[in-house]
Each structure stands twice: as structure tokens, then as C-alpha cells.
Amino acid sequence: MTLILRRLLQAVVTLLGALTVMFLILRLTPGDPVQIMLGDYRTPELEAALRARYGLDQPLPMQYIRYVGNVLTGQFGVSYWRNQDVSTLVANAFPYTLQLSLAGIIVTCVIGLPLGLLAALKRNTLADIAAMLIALLGVAAPGFLLALILIYVLSYALGLFPVQGAGEGTGALNQARYLVLPAVALGFHSAALVARTTRSALLNVLSEDYLRTARAKGLTQAALLTRHAFQNALIPILAVLGLQLGQMLGAAGVIEIVFNRPGLGNMLIGAILSRDYPLSQAVLAVLLSGVILINLLTDVLYGLVDPRIRHA
Amino acid sequence: MSSTVWSTRASATPEVRLPRTFWRDTGQALRRQKAALLGLALVGLVILAALIGQVGVPESANRTNLAQRLSGPSPQHVLGTDGAGRDILQRVLLGAPLSLAVGVVAVAIGSVLGSLQGLIAGFRGGLLGSVIMRFTDAMLAFPTLLFALAIIATLGPGLSNVMIAVGLTSMPRFTRVMHAEVLSLRNRDYVLAARSLGATTPTILWRHILPNAMSSVLVLSTLSVSTAILAEATLSFLGLGPRPPTATWGAMISDGTSVLQVAPWVVLFPGLAITLTVLGFSLFGDGLRDALDVRLRDR
Amino acid sequence: MSYVTRRQFLVQIAVAAGGTTLVAACGPAAPAANPTVEPAATRPPTQVPAARPTGVSAVATAAPTTAPTAAPAAAAVGKPGGVKIYRVGLSGDATEMDPARSTTQANNPVQEALYNYVGRYTYHPPLGTQVNPELAEGWDVQDGAKTFIFHLRKGVKYHDGSGEVTADDVKWNWERVKDPKTASAGAPDWAGSTLTVLDPYTLKVSFEQPYPAFIGATVGYGYAMIVSPTAFQANADKWSTHPIGSGPFVWDSAQPGSSLTLKRNPDYWGPKPKIDQIQFRMKVDDRTALLAVAKGELDAMYISDPDVAITASKNSDPNVKFIKSAYGQAPFTLWFNTRRPPLDDVRVRQALRYAIDSNAIAKNLFGGLADPIQSFLPPWMFGYSDEVTHFEYNPDKARQLLKDANVAADWQPSMVSQAILTISRRVTEAIASYWTDIGVKVQNESLEQGLITSRSAKNDFDMYGTYISRVDPDQLTARFWRSNGATNRSGYSGADDLIDKIRNEADAATRARLYKDLQEKLSVDSPAAFVVATSEHLLLNKRVTGEEGAGWLERMNFFDADVPAE
């Protein structure tokens, strides 16, 4: 329990540190929100007026102090472009990204775990190679390309799924229809990693001494797997799954763009490219919290699964 | 005590001999893996293509030829032409060394820095370890795009900066995996034994932890080569890729997406090139992993 | 988020037209096409069919009340008692509902449905570049285009019933644009203006200098749309989700960054739209737009990607109608930074122009959907002239000129352009390749939006290529080519006198002649290469009737468009 508390405290510190780094990266990256906004309509007077409006005419330390003050009071500011409170914008988009990431990780597991298991059991056979090849297909194509191909084949040619959107404002069942292709495009990529990790981990565990002993005592391969191997192999698999879920929260952006779904990633890419600092910072803060939380949970799970770590 | 033949030997033999034996054994084991050999062959093929691309493709391959644009595969253009009328075969060859470089350099950057961090964090633990791991958590949460944008915007667009950007973004994954490995290894019997026999920390790290953790890092590396190649493609797709007409496979694919319907070959062949490369590295990496693992090797 | 990134092309904001000054009503029978400024107005105009302009400025008025004479015949029916939902895809993200502060193109079609203009660029056939009175019944142009008197329509109500649109409201709106505190990109247009309310329905706008382009470049452009001052003052911080205007549609709901729904205004004062609802989808990718339109997920969308447009133009899918707009093409302009040698040498600039084969680019890269140009104006715009010095493709002459100018063999100029747009990438790649042919190893710096703007602001480039979409030639002139122009990327200063003369010249025919001179001057001096003019093309699902594609800035005809009820 103290471990969890300590980790929680660390998480908060991490978050604050990361927010600071983010703040700096965003401001120090070349590109000026005001110039982007005005484009070919810019004049020195207009630029100055907009800078003043967004507080960008203040020195950086002042901006930072104000930012920290606002964050501590729960205000993430107003989006430059949308002229709307960023908390509202983020809250609106978050459920879509969460849906997509979870659906993506389900796809990953559904494809990755059985293939990894199969490959480990039938090591160095044709089945092993075939399983790995299937899993690798997802890695072999960039997500945006896979997404476009899925759209062309399944949505356009066969008419099975909608081409774009998330079915906003419609029923859950209908929204699920919109979720299938993006989840596949997002989740397939991680399947290979999970399959390979599963395979490696199982093989690793299967060669451990105590399993050799168990085998020598006459336990069947299947019993070995279920009773001993899988539980121990779970650590690296969970580590990878946790990592992947965290990654998906961020990686979802490109998929969201191609499928034209609302979501944090989509919003963040737009915000970063247009240098909408308040919106970028708010989205990043949420993504960061998500990832930190997932990592925390993974670490705690480690402890539960592997007593050696818990006692360490 | 020591669970493997190798680690007993390792602690008993001077450092000089270790690598040689280690690599020879690994090589022998590797030869027994058919899939790994297939992977090696594919990687070899890609390297060969890269060599041809480096020396055998005329400079004119990047020249646009508007009258020829989007013509399908034909005797004249075996793999067809792209949206600017350039020969895709030539461009795929031209792209081989570039894409390979993106993958390998980025992973080299990410794996070395990342593993080092993970090793330190896992073995030392304590405050330093916590700081490193929290830093890693934070880095993981930063989307690749933000890093890449910050780096590319600061250093300027160009292939080498894309490599650095992609490499740095792959770093935390190595840290996490190395950290997890070290955590599970450092209390193993043979490590504890070595320590009780008075081995110094660097020795333990170098002889016992690193070799055993290496397999996971290698697995991740081989996959990361492909991830890096794909990340470059995604950056191109978002307008942050290398400057045109640089013929990386990623840039070619992203360029072809707008003609996917009418000229699928523009995407198909660089896509195939990526697939084969990824496949090669992954199969090889898997084989290497098995070969590296002494316990598996013995059976 | 605002995808400025996606389409710098057809830049931000609203619209204006090729016109010139304007006129208000010319009496019931007058069929417009009057190239001169018509002072004095008779009003109200009824039944004036707008004349289709032919290259030159068109002056025309059509009273919106009687408007769509050319409206398509058959009305779509569909399910009895159903709702007519018109699904429109936008390339960017409509983020801002305050017209004065709008900075993205995608805002424009949404705002045009919510708000009225005092005078609106025609949206219904026959299409063209005339500004028709909307909230005004007409206007008078006086004092050699120094004074404009607007006569407002009576009885126009805001959506929320907060009152009638009066001259005070128009004054408030326009002065808000002018106010430096608003930081509206439209502010510079109002320099030297004074607004006076003569009576509740009459507004006088006077300028210190003649401003004949006022109607076309300012009144008809997006910043000048009219919002309800009462509602705005009460609700400024919630305006993005509570906009109140007097237009044909009212706000319904939005999912920020992805969709936005407007409903028909049941009490609209003018001709009622046929559709009940517009559902906008934001940031639709050109690549998937074609598929979505084919599948009926979208009814209409403008696309710019030439590859997708070529595919669509071949009618590859029977469910998709492709419309190549007759108006709105934007010139692709490649500025030469004359502050940097050797680009300060006119021979070098001319050589670079001789080395570009615009015809081949238009024909092959754009499949004929773009026009090769030699001028800084696109062919559809008022003042355009093709009678300028042409730089026809001639690589030998180019090499000779470079040799004469003693250009170093290792010169590697940087060319900055927008990376993400196929439309931009294809052209710059082709140009880079042409220049490589004459021995100029150009560094093609294809950048994201943030870097582009900062490089542009610092004039840190040798060449800078982009599309500029505007409607009135005035918007393309002083700002880009006068020595003190805010975006004079070339650092050019050879035509200040001419530019000043044009700006103040009230007579349209004279102005057209002066524009011709300016085009010739810019052609000879070559501060930039003018390559092709291309536009956005409209994709329609086959169920749509009544939309012909007004041509620029994703403008749509929400009045005449019709779809079956569902």
C-alpha cells in the first residue's frame, strides 16, 4: 500500500515536471501562433494586438508563472483558435479516444495472444513461422496506410462499415460500427509485438528450472502452460500491453485523422501544428496523466504477479 | 547456484575470451534456426538493394517526368511510375539505403541511450532509479509527433533530423523493457551468488545482467527498426518528413495515398519493400533471440 | 484544430469577389454588366437577373428576395414528412463563429449560412463575381468612390428575436472589425474610414482616399458579415457555441473539431432554403472525401488534392458528380527573394521562369483542371490580362541567361513551400526538377505550417511558393507587391506608383487598364514566377440538386441546394 502511495506521489511530481518541460518545448519550438493564425493577412499591428490578447507579449517566465497559477486553480485556458475553454474541448474529445484505445488493445490481444501462444507451443515449426508472419502484417504497414486500405476495401468496395466519422450523437450500437475499422488499424500494429513477446516470454519461462522439474515430474505441456508458464510470462506481456495502451492514446491521432474521428490525438496534432499552446498543453496533460496512470497500474500488477519484485 | 552452463563459465573466465565464445556459440545456434536464416537472407537482400541504390541508380531517378506520371507497370517501367512520373523501381532502390539508415540509426540511438537508462534505473533503484523511470513515463506520454516536431522545427527538416527524432522517441520503450528485465534478473540466484563471491557491480552488470537482458532488448530492437521506418512514413504523412524528392519508402507511400484508388502500385512496391525489411529484421531478431538464450540453446 | 495546415491554399477567411466597385441597383430592367461605377442608386431593385461577367468586372444586382431565378427545376422529394439533411464536408475545422475574428477558411461556409452580408457575392446561378445587395436594398457610390451610402432593408430580424438589423448594428459590426483591439484580419481594409448613421436604415461610410474596391474587397468579404450586437455583447465568450445572426440557418449543436449542425431559420426574411438541416463534418481528408460522397455519407465537399480531383473528374463513380468551378482559381505564386543575390539580378529571375513548363504542369499534373498563367492574377478575376510578356518554356535561353549573370555553379537556393498539400508538393517538385535541368540545385524545403510562417515572416528563403486565394484584385496587389506591403515577400519596390494609382482609380475601365500595366510590369521584372491557377473542385452526391459550386473558399449555395427527405 505504501508502495502505491509513494508511486502516486511520484506520479504527481512527474506530471508537474512534464508539464513544465512541455511548456518549454512548445514555446521554444519555432513557429508563432499569431503568425500562423493571420497567415497572409498579417500586419505588425495585428500581430501585436493578438500577442497582447493571448499574453504572448509577456516574457517567458511570466507566462510560465501565470500558466502554473492557472493549472493549480484548474484553469487550462482558452484555445486560441476555438475561443473556447480547453477543458470543455478536452472533456468532449476524451471519451472517443478512450473508446478507440481500449478497442485497439482488445484487437491487439485478440490477434496477438493466441498467435504468440501457438508459436511458443509449436516452436520452430511451420505453424510458428506462419503465426509470426500473420502478426507481422500489422507491423509491416504504416497505420495510416492500413487505415486507408481498410476504408477502400471494407467501407467503399464492400460497404460493410462507414467511411469516416464516429457516429457522434447516435446510439452505442451504431457508434460501435464506426469503431471497428479504426480499432483494427490501431490495434493490429501492436499485435505483432504482443505475439512475439508472448512467444518469447513463454519460451523463457518454459526453460526455467522449476518448469523443467515440473516437466520431469510428468506434467503435460498444456498443464505446464496454464498452471505455471502463463502466469510467469504475464509480466513481460503486461509490460508490453501497458506500454502499448499508453502509446495508443497518443498514436490514435493519425488514425483519428484518417477516419475523421473526434479525439484527443486528432485535436493534439492540430493544436501542435497550429501552435495552440493552451489546447496542446491541456491535451498533453490528459494524455500524460493517462500514460502515467497506466504505467503505475502496470507496475503494481508486476508486483502482484511477481513476488520477487514486490519484496525487492 | 548458477542455472546455466554459460554463466558459470562466464564468471570463471577472463573477459577477453567471453565475447568470442559467446558470439561463436550464438552463430552456431543461429544456423540451426531456419526462420532466422530466412530473415537474414531478407536483410541481406535489403542491404544488397541498398548497395545498388547507393551506387547503381542514376541521379535522374529523382527527376519528374510529367508526361509519364502514374503509368502502370510496363517493360519500360517495371514497377510503374509515381505521381511525378518517376520510375518506382529506381526510387525503391534509391530509398533502400535511406530507409535502412532511418531504421538502423534511429534504433541505435534509442536502444543505446534507452537501455543504459533502464540498466541504471533497474540496478541502482533508489531515487535515481525513480527519477529515471518517472522521466521515462513522461517521455512515453509525449506523442512522437510533438518530439519530432520540436526537433525538426528546431534543427530543420531533413533526413538526419528525422532519424534523431524517431530515435529519441523510441528511447523510453527500451528503458522500460531493460528496467523490467533488470528487475527480474537482479535477484536471480546466479547474480546473488556472483555478488556473494565478491563480483563488482560493473562485472555483474556486464557479465550477468546485460547478456541475459539482451535478448529482450534485441527483440525490441528488431521490431523498432520497422517501427522507426514506419514512424518516418507517418511523419511524412503529416508533412514532417524529409525534404522532397528524398526517396524514403515512407515518403513514397505517403505520397501515393492520394492515388491509392487509381494507381495502387505507387504505394504497393515501397510498401512491399517495407514489409520485406520488417519481416527480415523480425525473423532474424527472433532467431537471434533464441540463439542468444543459452537455456533454449541447450535443448 | 484549425487545420490551416491542410489548406493554406485558398487561404483563410471569407470571401470577396472579383468585382470592382459596385453599384447598387440599376433599376428593374437593367441587366447589370456595367463596368463603371454607378453613382446613385435607385432602389429597391426587384427582379434583376445577374449578368454573368466575362472576365471584366461585373456589376450586378439581384434582389435576394426574388433571387434564384435560375434555381434548378425539380425539387427533391424523398420520404413524406421526413427531414432534409444536407451533409457537407469541410477541409478544415470551423472553429470561430465570430466573423471579425475568423481566420480559417472552413469558418466561411458555416458563417455564410448563419449570417447575412450587407452585400453578398452571388451564390446562385448564374455564378460570377458580382456582389448583390442582401441586408441592403442597394448602395450609392459617391465622391469618386470615397463615400458609400448603404440603404438597409427593413424588417430583418435576428435569430433570437433580439431586434431588427439597423444601421447602428452594421456600424457596430464594422467598427468592431476596424477596432485594433478586436485584432481582426479585416482591420487594414478599414483604414481611414468614418462610419455615420444617417437614419436607422441608412449608413454612410466615407474614406479619406478613394477606395473603389470597397464593396468587392471589404463589404462582400467574410469579416463584414453582420452578427447581433445585443447577443454578442451578452454572450461574447460563448459565441463559438451561441452565435446569433440574421441568416437563413440557426445554430443547433456541435462536437468541437468534428461536426456541427445548423437548422433552417423558420422565420428567415428572405427566400427560404429548401433543406431543413446542414450537418458539417470537419477536417475531411480529400482522399476519403471522394469515398464518403460516393457512399452518401457526405452530400457535398470541395477538394483540392489534384490527384483525387483527376480521379473524380473521370466520373469513376456514378454516385458522384464532379464540378470544376469556373471561378475561384488561385494562382500558384513563387516569390523570388530579391534581397538575396543572385536573385537581385533580373536575368536570374527570368531564367528561372523560362525553365518552368507551366503548360506541362497544368496539363499533366492537374489533368487540365488548372490553367497555366503568366500573371499574378487568375484568369477569372477582374483586371486579368494575358497580354503580358510570356515566359514560355525555354531551357536553353534559361541556361544562357544564367551564364550571362555569372551564377555560381554551386548555388543552392532554398525553396520553401507547404509540405502537407499534394497540390503544393507536386508543383514544387516539378519546378525543382525543371531547375535542376538548368543546373540550379534548389533545396526543396517542404515545411509544416508553423515553420513556413516563421520563415515567411523573417523573409528567410530564396524562393517561397504558395497559392493565394482572394476574390478582388485589390486584395492581391498592394499587400504583396508594394514596397511597404506586409507580405511583400520578394522585397519588390518597382511598381509603387502604379499600385497607388490603381487603388484610388474610381473608373473601372481605367482600373482594368492599369491592372494590365501592372501585370506587364511584374512580368518583366519577374519578382516572382506565376505558374498555374487552380481551384477547389466540388464533389456532389448524385442525390443533390441546386448546387453548382460558387467556386472559392468552399462557398456553397445553401439556398437552392436540395436533397430528398429521410
Count of individual beta strands of chain C? 19
The helix/strand series of chain B, from N terminus to C terminus, equals HHHHHHHHHHHH
The biggest beta sheet of chain B reads:
none
Our estimate of the beta-strand percent of chain B is under 5%
Strand line-up across the major sheet of chain C: 8-9-10-1-11-19-12
SSE class of chain C: alpha+beta
Uncertain ranges of chain C: 1-73
**General shape of chain C:** globular
List the helices and strands and how they pair.
The complex is a heterotrimer of chains A (312), B (299) and C (566).
Chain A: H1 2-28, H2 33-38, H3 44-54, H4 60-72, H5 86-121, H6 126-140, H7 143-157, H8 172-206, H9 209-216, H10 221-259, H11 264-273, H12 277-305, H13 307-311
Helix pairs in contact in A: 1-12, 5-6, 5-8, 5-10, 5-12, 6-8, 7-8, 7-10, 8-10, 10-11, 10-12, 11-12
Chain B: H1 5-12, H2 17-31, H3 34-55, H4 88-124, H5 126-141, H6 144-155, H7 159-185, H8 189-196, H9 201-237, H10 249-256, H11 265-292, H12 294-297
Helix pairs in contact in B: 2-11, 3-4, 3-11, 4-5, 4-7, 4-9, 4-11, 5-7, 6-7, 7-9, 8-9, 9-10, 9-11, 10-11
Chain C: E1 85-89, H1 107-114, E2 119-121, E3 131-133, E4 136-142, E5 147-152, H2 167-178, E6 193-199, E7 202-207, H3 214-219, H4 229-235, E8 249-255, E9 259-264, E10 277-281, H5 286-294, E11 300-303, H6 306-313, E12 320-324, E13 330-336, H7 346-354, H8 358-365, E14 370-372, H9 395-404, E15 414-418, H10 422-437, E16 443-447, H11 449-457, E17 463-467, H12 478-481, H13 496-504, H14 508-525, E18 528-534, E19 537-541
Parallel strand pairs in C: 1-10, 1-11, 15-16, 15-17
Antiparallel strand pairs in C: 2-3, 4-5, 5-7, 6-7, 8-9, 9-10, 11-19, 12-19, 13-17, 13-18, 14-18
